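Review the following:
>
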Amino acid sequence: MLISLRIRNLALVDDLTLELGGGFNVITGETGAGKSIVIG
């Protein structure tokens, strides 16, 4: 299970840290917002 996700210097993302809690987590957003970049 993922607890934390940190992304640095990927495509348009300079620095991003996601703290995920237990259970079901969903990432949503508009088309072109970068969800695929974060998940990929």
Summary: The radius of gyration is 11 Å. The chain has a mean pLDDT of 79.
